[in-house]
Amino acid sequence: MAGPNDFDLYRPSEEHEMLRESVRALAEAKIAPFAAEVDEQGRFPQEALDALVANDLHAVHVPESCGGAGADALATVIVIEEVARVCASSSLIPAVNKLGSLPVVLAGSEELKQKYLAPLARGEVMFSYCLSEPDAGSDAAGMKTRAVRDGDTYVLNGVKRWITNAGVSDYYTVMAVTDPEKRSRGISAFVVEKGDEGVSFGAPEKKLGIKGSPTREVYFDNVRIPADRMIGAEGTGFATAMQTLDHTRITIAAQALGIAQGALDYAKGYVAERKQFGKPIGDFQGVQFMLADMAMKLAAARQLTYAAAARSERVTLGGSGKDEQLTFYGAAAKCYASDAAMEITTDAVQLLGGYGYTRDYPLERMMRDAKITQIYEGTNQIQRIVMARNLP
Question: For residue 322, what pLDDT band results from cuts at 50, 70 and 90?
Answer without folding.
Answer: confident
